[in-house]
Design a protein that fits this description.
- By secondary structure, the protein is mostly helical.
- Helices cover 80% and strands 0% of the residues.
- It has six helices and no strands.
- Helix 2 runs antiparallel to helix 3, helix 2 runs parallel beside helix 4 and helix 3 packs parallel to helix 5.
- The N and C termini lie far apart (30 Å).
- The relative contact order is 0.12.
Length: 111
C-alpha cells in the first residue's frame, strides 16, 4: 500500500531522473501506482503519458507506454472499470499518433 506523500516524492524523483535511471523508475512507479487510490492512479497516468510523449530516449518512452498498458489491463479485468480502460486506450492512441521514431512506430503498430 502506498500513500499520497510517497506518491508526491516518487513523482519528484521521476521528473528529475534522466536516461536509464528514469527507465528503471518508470517500472517501479507503475508497480507503486497500482496500489494507490484512484485519484493518484489517474494523476500517475498523466505523468506516464507525458514521459511516453516527451522523453528524449525512445526506450524510456516505450517503458512509459507499456506501463500505461499495464494499468489499462488492470481495469480491463474489472467490469466496473471498462470505461477507464477505454479512456486509457485514448491515451495510448495519442502516444502512437505523436511518435516519430520508426522503431517505436513499428512496435506500436504491432501492439
Amino acid at each position: 500500500e502506498g500513500s499520497h506523500e510517497q506518491y508526491n516524492y516518487f513523482v519528484k524523483v521521476l521528473q528529475k531522473r534522466k536516461g536509464w535511471a528514469r527507465y528503471g523508475l518508470v517500472g517501479l512507479f507503475t508497480s507503486f501506482l497500482k496500489r494507490l487510490p484512484e485519484q493518484d492512479i489517474e494523476r500517475g497516468l498523466l505523468e506516464l503519458l507525458k514521459i511516453a510523449k516527451e522523453d528524449p530516449q525512445w526506450m524510456v518512452r516505450l517503458q512509459a507506454y507499456r506501463s500505461i498498458k499495464t494499468i489499462q489491463d488492470k481495469y480491463r479485468q474489472s467490469d466496473q472499470d471498462k470505461d477507464r480502460a477505454t479512456v486509457i486506450q485514448t491515451m495510448l492512441d495519442e502516444i502512437k499518433l505523436l511518435e516519430k521514431n520508426p522503431r517505436l512506430m513499428d512496435v506500436y503498430k504491432n501492439e
